[in-house]
Amino acid sequence: MNILKAFFITLILFLSNYNYHAQSIIRLACNPMFDPVAAQSLRLTPLEGNLILGTLNNSPLSLSSFSGQQRTTQFVPSVSIPSSPRVALSPDGRYLVTLALPEDISLTLWEIKTGNIFSIPLTEEESIALIEDQSRPQNINRYLNLQRLEWVSSTEFVIRKLDLSVRMGASFLFQQSFSLTFNPLTVTRQDRIDYGSELYEILGNPVTYNFYSPSGTYLVQEGLSETISPISTIIQIVNLDTNIIVMTLQPEGESGYIHRGLWSSNNRLFLRQDSIVNNDASTSRSVLHEIDFSMNPPQIDTRMWDTIESALGGEVNWLEGQFQAKFSPSGAKFSLKAKLSGTDNIYLISYTLNTGEIVAVCDNQRPESNFIQSFWSPDERYVGYFEDARHVLVVMDTQEAAIYSLPLTENDQQFLGWIP
User: Fold this and answer.
1) Mean pLDDT, range 179-198, rounded to an integer
2) Residue-wise DSSP of 300-335
3) Residue 351 neighbours by CB under 8 Å, 6+ apart
4) Thinking of the domain 27-419, which architecture would CATH place it in?
5) Per-residue pLDDT at 252
6) How many secondary structure helices (H) and strands (E) does the chain include?
7) What pLDDT digit, counting tens, does each position of 205-230 carry?
8) How far apart are CA 319 and CA 322, in angstroms?
9) Does pTM top 0.90 for this prediction?
10) Whole-angstrom distance, CA of residue 195 vs CA of residue 212
11) CA 161 – CA 149 distance, rounded (Å)
């Protein structure tokens, strides 16, 4: 009996410590009146970092070092930066790969620390995949453009060919990966993935869009019914290794899921769920839920959003258009922007997946651009975004729970990334 009593006392103490820890890792900071753009020249930041910036006109790359509000810039004339999607910086900020000129049939890999430059030969088909239809960029979603040349880890990047006949879906025809090994630095061409044309169809849906996981293991199909409302979207997930449909998500009542291509490094998928609010079809609420493919069958996991809403104290609406949700370089953290219902407070949020740690800071400005480039620093301390319309670079310090704006000029037309 004494042993059992001691056990329960120990359990109670453990749970008390656990709850205290869970509460202590939620950090919120909100000044609704603060606008990082208006305060650009007023608020000082302790931030120190090196950022790569460029223009959209094949100008020399700009490497800028920030120390507080002070900025020094050097140009690298040996590396010209074209417009996206022909340039990509590795998640650790060590390598930049680019197709400098449209007529090139090779990639340039720049090792930033050493300044060494390597040439990677391409096939004609791969080169065309990077540049085709650039004369009509309005026909291609800019975020999908970035997936043509993309790093999937700090040691691997891929070239993808978009199916340009599909106006809305991120359908790929093939994916060619290249991996890096070191001592000496070597780039190795890996196996190519050719996506089959004989795919499942979603019955009753005249339009089906196909989205592939970065590993090529899963196919997510989004079927749009003949009605306009996104609530009528049907999601179907296929395991391409077994060619079996592993999950189908249909609208339930006034809620339905929409694919947004947010994949973690361990093949976990985040889907947007939209719900009509108060029976008003013109008003909807968007949240993010996760699909865990390690379970059989895969399961919907709502813990991240439940934790965020608990931390902020109410219903939270995902603001997809104001910030491109993004995983940190290690995949351990996830960033997004959301609004607390019933208030004017908009938060930039960092969420640590395995601990539930939340850092949320108010950022109530309204971007004027439809293209927001979000980023993490390589050490995962800073998260932020670049807005090209106003040349604004907003940075949140997750250690200090503070938000800042870095001084940019109109010459800074393109944000490429953060380097160590």
Assistant:
1) 85
2) EE-HHHHHHHHHHTS-EEE-GGGS--EE-TTSSEEE
3) 304, 307, 308, 333, 334, 335, 336, 357, 358
4) 7 Propeller (2.130)
5) 77
6) 4, 30
7) 656 677 778 777 888 888 765 554 55
8) 6
9) no
10) 9
11) 9
